[in-house]
Specification:
This protein is of the alpha+beta class and 329 residues long. It is 28% helix and 22% strand. It contains nine helices and 15 strands. The strands form three sheets. It has a ten-stranded antiparallel sheet. Strands 12-11-14 form a three-stranded antiparallel sheet, with no helix packed on it. The longest helix is centred in the last third of the chain and has 18 residues. The chain binds fe (ii) ion.
């Protein structure tokens, strides 16, 4: 299936995977790959990252959650953003994400290695990381935008353009067959930029529809053929909408890909925020089993229902969305 955006002719460099569930597997449209030359300067805009797709074309894919693959003819187009050499320097100088416990992870087949094994005196030890990489483990680092200005600029632009949350992660692997995770899906939409080395991506359908983190556990498709199976080369872009089951394998050399995460707000997020706000009211914190007898459970129930309705009526989604990108990460 071939798509154009906004009625325009389809981009001849893009491969979009059309969804035709449940009748058959997704069919990929294979198109030309003679992409124009790009500069080696670090792209710090959304348009620069997704080129030769236009920003409007990309935002259309994002809105429709369409899996898309954009081979790049210029292998070094993302190299100046953040390669393994630059990441090593950042780690050696102590300039790396560490605000959250899982900002850096060492993993293999979805199992995490305790941080004590790759840190020394509480600091990430690059020599130990290199040993794990050589043994087929993957290093995952998220929230790199807090340390890399070009990535911060991209995330700021995404927040402004889409009103969605955005952050950047990197996955580093070394050696054939290394896989950071088993078949899984991410609830966030992801733009994958292959920076260096190669990585085989396999995507399995059907996707989980409109996933949200913390929703009930889903089972991966069993024994199905992948709907996408490509080895990403440096300069390639892959858009993996949230909910697509996938697994990756690195090639023979060090492989680095960046993932730009998009976190859209949903009604559930709005309702959750509302629920959290109730904690500031004693009415919702009073133990229902310890009422003093002067007030009955039925009266409390009426009071709670009335307050819930009142707060729900006050909900304004436009105000919620306007604040979302500042808090979503
Ligand atoms: Fe993933």
């Amino acid at each position: 299936m071939r798509y154009g955006c906004d009625g325009s002719l389809p981009n001849p460099l893009l491969r979009v995977v059309g969804r035709v569930w449940p009748e058959e597997l997704l069919a990929m449209t294979a198109l030309a790959s003679d992409a124009p030359t790009t500069t080696s300067d670090a792209p710090s805009t959304l348009a620069g990252l997704v080129s030769p797709l236009t920003e409007a074309e990309f935002l259309g894919l994002l809105r429709r959650r369409e899996l898309a693959y954009q081979p790049g003819a210029s292998g070094d187009r993302y190299a100046s953003l953040l390669g393994w050499s630059a990441l090593r320097c950042m780690i050696e100088s102590g300039n790396y994400p560490s605000k959250r416990p899982d900002d850096i992870r060492v993993t293999k087949d979805s199992h995490m290695v305790p941080s004590e094994r790759w840190t020394t005196d509480g600091k990430v030890d690059i020599a130990k990381l290199a040993e794990f990489l050589a043994a087929g483990f993957s290093v995952v680092i998220v929230h790199l935008e807090e340390h890399v200005p070009a990535l911060a600029a991209v995330c700021d632009e995404i927040r402004m353009r889409t009103l969605e949350g955005s952050f950047v992660g990197a996955v580093v692997t070394s050696g054939a067959g290394a896989g950071a995770f088993k078949v899984h899906y991410d609830p966030e939409d992801l733009v994958i930029l292959q920076v260096e080395g190669t990585k085989r991506w396999q995507i399995f359908g059907p996707p989980v529809s409109n996933p949200v983190r913390r929703m009930s556990k889903q089972s991966p498709p069993d024994g199905t053929e992948p709907i996408f199976d490509e080895v990403l080369e440096p300069g390639d872009l892959l858009f993996v909408p949230g909910g697509n089951w996938h697994r990756c394998e690195s090639g023979l050399s060090t492989s680095v890909h960046l993932g730009i995460f998009f976190l859209p707000p949903t009604g559930w997020h709005a309702a959750s925020q509302l629920t959290r706000q109730f904690l500031s009211e004693e009415l919702f914190r009073t133990p229902l089993t310890r009422l003093d007898g002067t007030i009955g459970l039925e009266a409390v129930e009426e009071e709670i229902k009335s307050r819930l309705v009142e707060r729900i009526r006050d909900l304004k989604l436009n105000e919620f969305i306007a604040e979302w990108s500042k808090v979503a990460y």
